[in-house]
C-alpha cells in the first residue's frame, strides 16, 4: 500500500508583528496630518483593516486584542495597576481576592458595574496579562522595626560613616581584612520541601519534632574567604560527641538556651576568630562589621579589640536585611540546603530523629557547600561594602519606610511612585484609589522611640573612644536586670524561696528543680515558700525575714525525718497569718497543701488560743476561719 505524505499547512501569526505604539502612531498621523491610511499602515506594519476600523469608530483605539472590550479604559486601568504596584512596594499589597474586591468597588465607583455583579478571578488573570509588570508573588515577612528604620536618610548616614573609616585605614585595597560576623539559628523542626507523589494521596513526611535551637556563628571576608563555623549548643557541658563530623577548625561551646550571649560572643572573638584573622598593626587593623545586638557590645570586648588592632563597626539599627552580607547572599542558600539536608537525613536514617549530636556534621556540610567564594563575593557586592557603592541599595527596598512618614503621600499615576500631588484636577478614578490607599497608610501606627544601645552604636565605629564613653554612660544609666528581677517584672510576686534538702552537695540542683516546679500559676501569699536560711536561698527571698528562722513546732530548719535521707526532698513551708511563724507542712502539721488565698494558722497559734480560752482545737479553727 502506498503511503502518501500529506502537506501540512502552517498557519501564520494571527496578526502582524506590530506594537501598541505602532498602532497609536499610525492612527495619530492619519487623524492629525490627514495622510493616507494605507501608506501609514504599510509604514508602521499595521494591517490596513485594523487601522481603518479604528478610524471609522467601529473599534475603540484602546482595544489591542480580539474579543470583548475591557471593562476599564486604558487610563483607568493604568491608575489601578499603578496603585496595586505602589501598595506592594511599600509593604501593604493586596492578595488576589483583595485585588478583585478592589477592582469591583472601583468598577462600581466608575459606573461600569453594580454591586450585584462583582468581578471574578477570570478578570484578574486577564488584567495581569494586559499588565505584565504585575504578577502574583510570595510575600517575604518584614518586621515593622525594619520597615521603619530602613530609610534613605539612615542608609546614607551609614555609608558616609563607612566611607570615612574605609578611607582612614585604606580598607578598599585590602579586602582580606574586611570581615562580617553573624549568628544563624539551626532548628531540626524544619518545613518539609515539596516532593513528587501520587495525585490521589495527601503525602506526609516524618520530622524530628520541636527541639532546642543550636546557634552557628559564621564569619566571612570580602576576599571570599570564610572562618570555620562556631556552634553554641544548649546544655551545661560541651561533650566531644557534639562536634562529631565537624570540619577541621570548627569550634563550639554551650549555653543554657543554645543562643549566643555576651560571654559566648566574647569567647568566640577572643579564642576562635582571632586565630583566623590576618596579621594586623596599628596602621593596618582588621575591620569587622556586625549588627548591633546587645551581646555584641560590651566594654570588655571593645577594650580587647582596641588592644588587638581590630576596628568594630556596627550596622545601622534594623537594617541587616539590606546591609549585612551574610543575610543578603549566604544564609538564604544555607537555609534552603539545610532543609533539604535534614529531609534527606531522615529518609536515609529512617526511624531516627535528628539529635543535637547530628547537627554539627549536617551543618558543616551545608556550610561548605553554600558559603562559597562566589556567594561571599556576591554578598559583599550587593550590600555595597566592597567595592564601596551606596547605589547598590535599591530605592524599592526602602519604600516601606515611606508609610511611616507623615504626611501621607499620594499616588502618582504616571510613575507609580509616592509623590506629593497637589493637582486639583484629579479625576474620580484617581481620587477613589488615593482614598483606598490613604486609609491603609493612615492606619499605620506611629511608634515611640526607645532609648536602646542600638541608638548609640548603630552605624558607628564602636572602638572609638567617644563611642566607648557613650556606651559606658548608657550602661551606667540602664543597668541590665538580673534574671530574677525580669521574672518578677513579668507579674510574679516576690516570695521567700528557700528549700530544705537532705543532701547538701546537691543544693544547687534542688534550687533549679524547685524553680521549675512552681509553674506559671499565680504566686501564693507566703505559703509554700520557706523562710530564708544561711544554708540555701535564692534571689526571690524577702530581705525582711530573719536569716535564722526555723520551724515553730520542731525548732529546726530540716525535719528530723530527713536527716538520714540520701535523696533530694523538698520541704513545703507555710507562714501563719496571725503570728507570722513558719512551720513544716506534712512533717509538723496535718496540713499537706494550701490553697490560694486560703487562711493558715500554725499549731503554735492554735495551741495558744486553746490554752487561753479552753476551746477544742476544732472549734478554734472554726472560729478563726
Which superfamily, in CATH terms, is the homologous superfamily of the domain at 144-191 and 208-396?
Ribonuclease H-like superfamily/Ribonuclease H
Helix content: 25-40%
Tell me what the CATH architecture of the domain at 144-191 and 208-396 is.
2-Layer Sandwich
Share of residues in strands = 5-15%
Uncertain stretches of 5 or more adjacent residues: 407-426, 443-447, 484-547
Distance between the termini: 115 Å
Radius of gyration: 36 Å
By secondary-structure content and strand pairing, the structural class works out as alpha/beta
Count up the helices: 21
Topology:
Layout: H1 20-33, H2 37-44, H3 48-55, H4 74-89, H5 96-110, H6 121-130, H7 144-149, H8 152-169, E1 178-186, E2 214-221, E3 226-234, E4 251-255, H9 262-272, E5 286-290, H10 299-307, E6 310-314, H11 320-323, H12 325-348, H13 356-370, H14 373-382, E7 410-411, E8 418-419, H15 428-442, H16 454-457, H17 465-477, H18 483-489, H19 507-517, E9 573-575, E10 582-584, H20 603-613, H21 617-624
Parallel strand pairs: 1-5, 3-4, 5-6
Antiparallel strand pairs: 1-2, 2-3, 7-8, 9-10
Helix pairs in contact: 1-2, 4-15, 12-13, 12-14
